[in-house]
Amino acid sequence: MSSLPLFRLPLLALEEFVRCLTPVELFVLSICSRRAARIVPFSKSSKFEMKLDTAGAIRINDDYCFISMDVPCISDTYFNCKTLGCTARHQKYGLTTYWHDTQLGLFKLSFYLSELFHCPIRSITYSPVFHNYTRVKEQETREYIRKVDRRQNGIDCVQIWKDGRFSPFKWY
To answer: What InterPro entries does the entry give (predicted)?
Structure first.
């Protein structure tokens, strides 16, 4: 199998091309191959701001959203993401990923995006109402927050969404 024609571009042209891609397009490019994933840092993605809502969403620069959901009926508008072990659907301002375990999928996706873009997770919002509905254990969320904190030497903001407002979340 021949390589992507993209890799035949001179380095300067490749850098300019990659800088024009959105975070969603960079993700889709990265799952093509390991070699494709290595050109993502040319996009200056380390300047991205990543926020996670444990209800199932990851926001990048407040413009693009990666959503984690239950497994859907497969149709021709979905593609397999073998790198992460999920099915995904590309949309205009985001990407919806489908997992057998939504919470585990969200955590895997957040770590993958953080490594891919070389950007830390700046804030985490915990939504207990959502977690009661989906039966996700609060302990799993606390454990995940600890992992993120250790991996990247701190999180700017951890908050809880309860009764229609934000408040600090004690997770340590």
So the answer is: F-box_dom
Q: How confident is the model at residue 168 (pLDDT cuts 50, 70, 90)?
A: low
Predicted pLDDT at 18: 92
Q: Which sign does the torsion angle of CA 88, 4, 59, 158 carry?
A: positive
- Token readout for 48 is 């991205």
What values do phi and psi take at 82, rounded to 5? -65, -30
H helix or E strand, kind and range, residue 29: helix 23-30
Instruction: Specify the length of the chain in residues.
Output: 172
pLDDT over 90, % of the chain: 13
β partners of residue 50: 60, 121
